[in-house]
Amino acid sequence: MKDMTMAELAALQNQQEVAILDVRDQEDFLARHFAGSLNIPEPDLEAQLDQLDRNQVYHVVCTKGIRAARASQLLEEQGYEVVRIVDGWAAY
């Protein structure tokens, strides 16, 4: 699993298309998110894995990095390639 900061993610998104999986609840997601992000709250992720493309690299973000870490671990265990955003929206 790779790690990245929010600042690095923002810079990367400005250069190329990036698949972002935001695992915050819907209210937080609607208040602020990267355009084109997919929102699946972390508690619902395992039940909604069928919404994800196994050929995609997902950049997983939350508020502070805690839910992103759990979600990233789950995705990696299920065979997905992930980049964990270690600091989250609180740092951006």
| Highest CATH level, the class | Alpha Beta
Number of helices: 3
User: What's the CATH topology name?
Assistant: Oxidized Rhodanese, domain 1
Gyration radius over CA: 12 Å
Mean of all residue-level pLDDT scores: 97
The overall strand count is 5
Structural class: alpha/beta
Protein topology:
Elements: E1 2-4, H1 6-15, E2 19-22, H2 26-31, E3 38-39, E4 57-61, H3 66-77, E5 81-85
Parallel strand pairs: 1-5, 2-3, 2-4, 4-5
Describe this structure in words.
This protein is an alpha/beta fold. The chain has a single domain (2-91), classed as Oxidized Rhodanese, domain 1 (3-Layer(aba) Sandwich). It is 30% helix and 21% strand. It is built from 3 helices and 5 strands; from the N terminus they run βαβαββαβ. Strands 1-5-4-2-3 form a 5-stranded parallel beta sheet. The two termini are 22 Å apart. The mean pLDDT is 97. InterPro entries: GlpE_sulfurtransferase (IPR050229), Rhodanese-like_dom (IPR001763), Rhodanese-like_dom_sf (IPR036873). Residues 14-91 form the Rhodanese domain. This is Rhodanese-like domain-containing protein. It comes from Streptococcus danieliae. Pfam families: Rhodanese (PF00581).
Annotation keywords:
21% strand, Oxidized Rhodanese, domain 1, 30% helix, 92 residues, alpha/beta, 3 helices
In short:
The protein is an alpha/beta fold.
